[in-house]
Amino acid sequence: MNQPLIDSPPAGSSPRAQGFAMPAEFAPHDACWMLWPQRPDTWRYGAKPAQQAFVEVATAIAESEPVYVGVNDDQYENARHQLPPQVRVVEISSNDAWMRDVGPTFLTHPDGRLAVVDWQFNAWGGLDGGLYFPWDKDRRIRTKIAEMLGIPRFTVPVVLEGGAIHVDGEGTLLTTEECLLNPNRNPGMSREAMERVLRDTLGIERVIWLPRGCYLDETDGHVDNLCCFVAPGEVVLTWCDDEDDPQHAISREALAVLESTTDARGRKLRVHKLPQPGPLFIEEDEASGLDRLNSSHPRRPGDRMAGSYVNFYVGNSVVVMPLLDPAHDEQAHHILQGLFPGRRVMGVPAREILLGGGNIHCITQQQPKRQLP
To answer: Which residues contact 372 (CB under 8 A, 6 or more apart)?
Structure first.
């Protein structure tokens, strides 16, 4: 179960044994991939408000790098009409629009080659807490992108979503026990076995395990909503000062781990705190615009959402962050601009994305630049 397989050349053993590794998100990109929202039980009012938010995200990222948006056939003309001409619209069927989790994890090689990891996907828990059924179209997205790009695809028989991991590009990986060790992903799989898969597939040396993700994160605690690398040896962490808020304890648990560990290069981590927005809750009119289906996760008035400013996208020349709370947006923008002085931090209204269960990082996937030796 733990040995990656490969479906296309180069043939042989694991990605790591062949010299491939996962680069950091802040390394140079050739493109960004997204999907188009249309699912009526995830996105209210036929996804029209969410589509506008996705257009704003794609337009902002396109200032930095090429953007590809995968669209189901019945939404192709609508998406092409709404998206700016510099954004390329391609027909890729999907069950929903979370490209970070259903799209490929890209790997690079010192000789300039690119490859993708094709993890297994079960909609964040399958029939034990998963968010929708079926997910058959999502399962084919990685294969399709690999074939479009003409690059190798390593098939790994382990359930894992892209938002569950974050790397520094120098051998260190961040994740949460709540997600990667959840029995609704890979029942019976030990921490040691999961670490072997991560090392062999992504070329990393050290895994930093945080206990839990953000409070009530429906992905079972994806790390990309809680904590991420902003540079080698530096992370940003969602922070809450309200002792009565459950996020308070979660953030302090994470901080204790981060401050007591070192990365793969032996460095102590520098932790930057980002304020938590809100807390934010689904309003009555926001819930009433959704289709109610037994096969999908309910979204009810008064439900708390796992809002986080950590859920941003790092492009070549921009950082696109979610605007979620006027009381904290400016402070979060100021902190991120200080952490990325060589990039322009752009805020995009993102509540409509959060209403669907995720945010800007969740709907994007960077394609690393092919670096020639």
So the answer is: 112
Each residue's pLDDT tens digit, 313-338: 999 999 999 999 999 999 999 999 99
Structure tokens at 36: 């188009």
Cα–Cα distances (Å) from 243 to 18, 246, 249, 250, in that order, read 48, 8, 8, 11
* CATH of residue 331: 3.75.10.10
Structure tokens given for 162: 């892209």
Sheet holding 344-349, edge to edge: 313-314, 318-323, 344-349
Q: Which residues contact 77 (CB under 8 A, 6 or more apart)?
A: none
Task: Confirm whether 362 is a catalytic residue.
Answer: yes
What Rg value do the Cα atoms of the chain yield, rounded?
A: 19
Residue 373 lies inside a defined structural domain of this protein: no
Domain span at residue 20 reads: 5-368
Alpha-carbon distance of 167 to 224, in angstroms, equals 10
Q: Which of 32, 214, 228, 362 is catalytic?
A: 362
pLDDT, tens digit (0-9, with 9 covering 90-100), for 233-284: 999 999 999 999 999 999 999 999 999 999 999 999 999 999 999 999 999 9
Alpha carbon distance 116, 346 (integer Å) = 29
Q: 288 Cβ partners below 8 Å, 6+ apart? A: 44, 301
- Structural domain contains residue 187: yes
Whether residue 211 has a cis bond before it, omega within 30° of 0? no
